[in-house]
DNA sequence: ATCTCAATGGAAACCATTTTTATTTAACCT
DNA sequence: AGGTTAAATAAAAATGGTTTCCATTGAGAT
């Protein structure tokens, strides 16, 4: 079934704009995690005018709403990934081909009980080379 | 027992320089995670000339060697922390007072077996407010 | 003491990301 | 449909943490 992006946006109390719909469409059809710059490039094929700050803002809002996931790359750039898996889990990301594999939720939630205070956010991510890239001898790239 | 910083540096095949020793001393006496900028400021009290790139380089090398830990702040800046706990574990960091609590190792290592490829690195970190800051009503700060 | 390569300072570059401000547009209410 | 309002956007510029470059200095081995 296709995703109802308009409904998703409404649920987040975000206005349903063509740019946001196109952003979601671009993310959801990508097979890898993508950079804001790349999203911007792709949207330039659809809109005569599309500003980079808009892309950054929308990606950030969508990530804050939990619709898309941030990928923290070792190169310190931020990437985004639309993960159809709606249950709580984390990711293994390939540093060569940028594909993403789901990792079933680890015990961090239990660990949070160790914490005396309040956990606001947590990051769990594994980086490496997927099997295909490993076999092909590809290298991690920036 | 005091840390033998010179020995640590030698083990990493890094030259034992006054700046590196002072960097380690600064990190190890800090009670919180600190920014490169802050390390630089502190070293300026010890050295007439100390360049910011040197601080960045040394912190990066020490982190690569596993002597200090990177803290990935939600504000996207990088901080460093000298953790005396030498066993594998992760951290809960307070976004208000910058203190760090150890989290006993979660199951990510097991999860890595799910991965078909090779895991090069992983991040596990919880962010929030420690109990003291929670009680004091302090807020997460940039 | 000398030699060699790593370490360093300073200035400049880099560049992803954010801010600013004026303009446009979606949403909501008649 | 038309009017209203606050959100969304574009464009340009600024921001600022981080890195690069290169000449100089210094640590460690012989």
Write up this protein.
- 2 copies of one chain form a homodimer.
- Chain A is an alpha+beta fold.
- Chain A has 2 domains: 5-81, Arc Repressor Mutant, subunit A, CATH 1.10.10; 89-136, 2-Layer Sandwich (Dna Ligase, domain 1).
- Chain A contains 6 helices and 5 strands, in the order H-H-H-H-E-E-E-E-H-E-H.
- In chain A, the strands form 2 sheets. A 3-stranded mixed sheet of chain A has the order 4-3-5. A two-stranded antiparallel ribbon of chain A has the order 1-2.
- The longest helix of chain A has 13 residues, at 52-64.
- The first copy, chain A, is globular.
- The termini of chain A are far apart.
- In chain A, 30% of the residues are buried.
- The model of chain A has no long low-confidence stretch (mean pLDDT 94).
- Strand 5 of chain A pairs antiparallel with strand 5 of chain B.
- Chain A binds a DNA duplex (30 and 30 nucleotides) through residues 14-17, 19-20, 35-37, 49-54, 56-58, 76-78.
Can you tell me the overall shape of chain A?
Answer: globular
The CATH homologous superfamily of the largest domain in chain A is called: Winged helix-like DNA-binding domain superfamily/Winged helix DNA-binding domain
First-residue to last-residue Cα separation of chain A: 35 Å
CATH class categorisation of the largest domain in chain A: Mainly Alpha
Helix share, percent of chain A: 25-40%
Query: What is the CATH architecture descriptor of the largest domain in chain A?
Result: Orthogonal Bundle
State Rg of chain A: 16 Å
CATH fold-type name of the largest domain in chain A: Arc Repressor Mutant, subunit A
- Backbone structural class of chain A: alpha+beta
Order of the strands making up the biggest sheet of chain A:
4-3-5
Number of separate strands of chain A: 5
Percent of residues in β-strands of chain A = 15-25%
Arithmetic mean of pLDDT of chain A: 94
Oligomer: homodimer
What's the helix count of chain A?
6
What string, H for helix and E for strand, traces the elements of chain A in order?
HHHHEEEEHEH
Q: Number of domains in the coordinates of chain A?
A: 2
Largest interface: A-B, 39 and 39 residues
Low-confidence stretches of chain A: none
Question: What profile does the largest beta sheet of chain A have?
Answer: 3 strands, mixed
């Amino acid at each position: 079934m296709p995703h109802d992006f308009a409904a998703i946006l409404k649920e987040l109390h975000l206005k349903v704009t063509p740019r946001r719909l196109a952003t979601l469409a671009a993310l959801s059809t990508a097979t890898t995690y993508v950079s804001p710059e790349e999203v911007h490039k792709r949207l330039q094929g659809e809109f005569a005018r599309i500003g980079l700050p808009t892309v950054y803002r929308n990606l950030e809002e969508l990530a804050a709403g939990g619709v898309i996931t941030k990928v923290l790359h070792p190169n310190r750039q931020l990437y985004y990934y639309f993960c159809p898996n709606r249950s709580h889990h984390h990711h293994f990301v390939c540093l060569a081909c940028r594909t993403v594999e789901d990792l079933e939720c680890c015990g961090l939630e239990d660990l949070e009980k160790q914490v005396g205070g309040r956990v606001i956010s947590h990051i769990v991510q594994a980086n490496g080379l997927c099997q295909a890239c490993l076999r092909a001898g590809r290298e991690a790239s920036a």
